[in-house]
Amino acid sequence: MKTTRNSYMTFVILLLLAVGFAGCGDSSEEKISSDECECGEQFIRNVEGSGTVSYNEVVGKWQISSHVQGTYDTVYLYLVSGNKNLDEYNNLVVNFSGKVYSIQSEKMPVVSAGTECFCLLLETITVKP
Q: Which residues does 37 contact at the CB level (< 8 Å), separation at least 6?
């Protein structure tokens, strides 16, 4: 009986270690790097758009605020993943592209009605002419 209990405890400990080392998860086809762990696991879409860059002090991340064409008040708020420094683009309108993921609920900033938040893995950014 004691051997069975020890085997069970060993199995549970190994299982917990395996889950702990899994990182961000592997539910998508594309592996997610450690910088991207702050994004949710659900890939939403690729994006090419324009918006205004600012620093969100509440969540400690750079963000790009992009008005949705054809709507009155819908804004997509993209929190930029990783430790990117976008200081040179602060308060400027930019063109950008990247991959959009769901955002982890504990990283969700408080926003006004009509605003949807996403996590952005920024690929390119240029000042809009």
A: 23, 24
